[in-house]
Target: DUF1697 domain-containing protein
Amino acid sequence: MKSYVALLRGINVSGQKLIKMETLRKVVEDFGFQNVKTYIQSGNILFDTSGNSTPELLEEQIHELIKTHFGFDVSVVVTDKEMLQWVSKSNPYLKEKDIDLKKLYITFLGTEPAKENIEALHNASFEPDEIIINKRVIFMKYNNPAGNSKLNNKLIENKLKVTATARNWNTTLKLLALFEEREAS
Model:
């Protein structure tokens, strides 16, 4: 049995793509995933699965479940505890003195972007916000309020040509804590 978290992009935001978490949990459980738990309304689904499932296969399966049951085309990125542990220890912005944690976000990428696409994102105009890309993760520091920034999922996906979904720093750490709670129980 392996535990994962599916990160859904753009549900229950500004009255769009409304999905009740209770219903989503039931759909995911009925598909066969076990120990299903959701965290907040933005679409974070922790679950266990047996077999040799890959994150890519799980992303496809959950994407299709949502499309079939709710009628929404929702981007899904699946990751695991090890990735969240790595992110929590590797965030380069944590080294800054007096960093405001509310400015930190993590964008999880469906696949590792090509070098030329990384260059295209770096050449895009989103100052004064900052990014550091490392494999399938973008460490982000918003110097403007995140909602007012040009640095958003649409820009990231457009430039990198990959699926992306962002979580604030506190949510990222909470997801890691939920994995640890699962193991303790």
The helical segments are 21-31, 55-70, 81-90, 115-123, 153-160, 169-184. The two ends are 15 Å apart (CA to CA). The beta strands are 2-8, 34-39, 44-49, 76-79, 104-109, 130-134, 137-141, 164-168. The chain has a mean pLDDT of 93.
